[in-house]
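Incident review: delayed structure delivery

Summary: a single-chain prediction request sat in the queue longer than the usual turnaround. Root cause was a stuck worker, restarted by the on-call engineer. No data loss occurred. The affected request and its eventual output are reproduced below so the record is complete for anyone auditing the incident later.

Affected input:
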Amino acid sequence: AKRVNAKWMTVVPGHVDLRQNIDFQTANVVESLRQASALLEPHGIVMVLEPLNFRNHPGLFLSKSPQAYQICKAVNSPSCKILFDIYHQQIQEGNLIPNIEQCWDEIAYFQIGDNPGRNEPTSGEINYKNVFKYIHSRGFKGVLGMEHGNSIEGKEGEQRVIDAYVESDGFL
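Output delivered after worker restart:
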């Protein structure tokens, strides 16, 4: 992070250990993240924990936003926050806006991708106009990462991405 002047880093705690009770594994993850946070805080670096969905990433420990919220609250550090990947959370749990609201004070980063296909907004089932309107209404000042492909190839697809963001922005 120091070498490239990064202020954010994505963290995925690994796979579920089926030989260990999930609560003990959670306690171990919290303790590890506390130690990492102590190293990162003086440098203003933030780990963003990314819950990933069961379909694309089966068996991972961190899969739901309430779980990420619980861990961030337990770590209790400005260097440990949530990366709320809208694509993953639509697959994993749905109920996007209420879950964003519940996790709000621990979210530092959103990633954008529609479902199915992980392409630009308006290419799938997620109502990005409402999701973006909610995020904007809360005064979010963090990162909105465009982690998606294009539903159409070439220059036409690039224009489709631009049009999708314009269409999804209720404030233009």
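Verification: The domain at 8-168 is CATH 3.20.20.150 (TIM Barrel).
Action items: add queue-age alerting; document worker restart procedure.
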